Amino acid sequence: MRLGVLTGGGDCPGLNAVLRALVRRGVREFGHEFVGIRNGYEGLVEPDLAHPLSLEDVRGVLALGGTILGTSNKANPYQYVVREEAGRTVERDLSDVAVARYRELRLDGLVAIGGDGTLSIAHRLGQKGLKVVGVPKTIDNDLSGTDQTFGFDTAVGLIADAMDRLRSTAEAHARVMIVELMGRNAGFLTLDGGLAGGADVILLPELPYRVEAIVDTLKAQWKHRRPFSLIAISEGAYPRGGTQSVQARLEDLPGRGVVRLGGSGKVLADLLAPHLEAEIRVTVLGHLQRGGSPSAGDRVLASLYGAKVLDLVRDGLWDHLVCLKGGHLSHASLGETRKERHVDVHGEKVRLARAMGVGFGD
């Protein structure tokens, strides 16, 4: 078969590991031919952005971060940004162009590697007659179709390392260090990263916080040690009765489909300042969480996903994605990825964290 493959949405460690496994198994076992589509769905709309993807192309990429195909989180063919002659940008539905490009490339199927946006688009293109399969990717780990996405483990490791470094300077200066983390509306990164980094307080989008509760937690801890603390806060966290901190709104981001969150750490610092004598500093890890070489765990998971998705192709399970369920590789409908997964604030992980003295601001 002749299969197209693209990486869409935000980059993350492990994308190249998927490509490597996909091509190695596809060529060796099935004799498939692969076409790499550059810059996500942009490569299905714009000309000259597709090229053969061979065994030689994926040699030595297992440990590389990013993606050798390039990616884009603003190339939605259903809301494609077009610049008119007057310089004004407008959104157009160019999904028919993407379908025509798929036909022009003589593809027998398309492997879409990405998060909720990328896979939702793949599902919609499947309804237009394209044969599509998906591989779930996001550092946020918020896709309902799978228990875990690759990229998450690497990001959590980076968060833990950053918090280890911040702890030493926080203790030296008796400061409160607030670490703002990614995750949008899901707190998985903040919960696991906060636990791995020894955060005293973890603030999640799923659990609006009260400033008074945070102050009480910090002061109670300071009775037994120097007045320093680490607070892990999700970019989507917000105070009870308040709203999320937004850097840019939908109308300012044509083609993105979501607002850009950010600034939750600064909001929290301003709210805490009147109640604490300790100095407060905010660190925004930002895109550091997306970069670098994938962890061993993500290399394994991404490789297995890349190899396993060819079982779906072999069995004709189009409009499905490969996934991890109960520790086993499986598959699920692409339509399931449109449901965002959230931290269970009443679940065992949060319960045990509370038992260890971690505050959640409620």
How would you describe this protein?
With 362 residues, the chain is α/β, with parallel strands linked by helices. The protein has 2 domains: 2-150 and 294-338, 3-Layer(aba) Sandwich (Rossmann fold), CATH 3.40.50.450; 155-291, Rossmann fold (3-Layer(aba) Sandwich). Helices cover 32% and strands 19% of the residues. Strands 3-2-1-6-7-14-15 form a 7-stranded mixed β-sheet, with helices on both faces. Strands 9-10-8-13 form a 4-stranded parallel β-sheet, with helices on both faces. A two-stranded antiparallel sheet has the order 4-5. Helix 6 links the parallel strand 9 and strand 10. Mean pLDDT is 92; it is low at 251-257.
Strand portion, in percent?
A: 15-25%
Helix segment count?
A: 9
Low-confidence parts: 251-257
CATH fold descriptor of the largest domain: Rossmann fold
As for the number of domains, it is: 2
Q: What structural class results from the helix and strand content?
A: alpha/beta
Second CATH tier, the architecture of the largest domain: 3-Layer(aba) Sandwich
Strand order of the largest sheet: 3-2-1-6-7-14-15
Helix content, binned percent: 25-40%
What is the alpha-carbon Rg in Å?
A: 22 Å
Sheet with the most strands?
7 strands, mixed
Query: Which whole number gives the mean pLDDT?
Result: 92
Return the CATH class of the largest domain: Alpha Beta
Give the end-to-end Cα distance, rounded to a whole number of Å.
55 Å
Following the backbone from N to C, one meets helices and strands in this order, namely EHEEEEHEHEHEHEHEEEHEHEEH
Number of strands: 15
